[in-house]
Specification:
With 220 residues, this protein is mainly beta. It contains two helices and 14 strands; from the N terminus they run E-H-E-E-E-E-E-E-E-E-H-E-E-E-E-E. It has one domain: Immunoglobulin-like (Sandwich), CATH 2.60.40.1190. Strands 1, 2, 3, 4, 5, 6, 7, 8, 9, 10, 11, 12, 13 and 14 form a 14-stranded mixed beta sheet that branches.
């Protein structure tokens, strides 16, 4: 289980620079996304994340070092970030609703936010929702196609807690709550396709939409 530390900011929507500084000064621990669940996809780049929250938001920071990078989507609605080099955060925030939310962002911080009870029944949030999620990538925000050689990047994300209230109106409050979640690094159309997870997955082929394999995180 991961303990998600609670932090405080002067503003309910701190800047990305303030979030990055808080991760460091609070010594928030990194966790590896290193489960190679399918032998047919052995490629294993370095991928790790850390997470914290405030009264109003959940903060994620992903760090990746890999050979090559792909970024073809520089917009949110209608994009398929999992085809690029991508990091993802899936979570079931409510103990009264089985819906899980999947946040998927490519290496330049563009992506999607969905929710629903299973892979087939997903509600895809439009730009009016996704644009409320603040993010910053050290690779910038413009699509560049494919880059070769070793690439290293960090993506910092701030998700307003109110966005999770689409499933449960009480979900503006997370403190004291233990929820199920998983974190991923993937790239379907990259030079070397790969599918890594934080909590192990026991399916015969790549599939991240398996809440039965989520791990636990606890919000302080």
């Amino acid at each position: 289980m991961i303990l998600v530390a609670k932090v405080a900011f002067a503003s309910p929507e701190p800047s990305i620079e303030e979030i990055q500084a808080k991760f460091d000064e609070s010594a928030i621990a990194w966790h590896r996304i290193d489960q190679v669940n399918w032998p047919g996809f052995p490629y294993h780049p370095l991928a790790e994340f850390r997470i914290m929250h405030s009264e109003t938001e959940i903060y994620l920071q992903f760090h990746v070092r890999e050979q090559g990078a792909r970024a073809t989507y520089d917009y949110d609605a209608g994009s398929s970030p999992y085809k690029d080099d991508c990091v993802e955060f899936f979570m079931i925030p409510s103990d009264r609703d089985p819906s899980y939310f999947n946040l998927e962002m490519n290496c330049i911080g563009h992506g999607t936010f969905h929710y629903g009870p299973n892979r087939q029944e997903r509600n895809r949030c439009g730009d009016e929702i996704v644009h409320q999620i603040r993010r910053h990538s050290t690779l910038g925000s413009e699509a560049f196609g494919t880059r070769e050689g070793e690439q290293e990047w960090t993506l910092t994300i701030a998700v307003p807690k109110r966005l999770y209230a689409q499933a449960d109106l009480d979900l503006t409050q997370f403190s004291g709550r233990t929820v199920r979640a998983n974190f991923y690094k993937c790239g379907d159309d990259t030079a070397v396709p790969h599918y890594l997870s934080w909590a192990p997955i026991g399916t015969p082929k790549p599939n991240f939409h398996v809440p039965e394999y989520f791990g636990e995180i606890h919000f302080e």
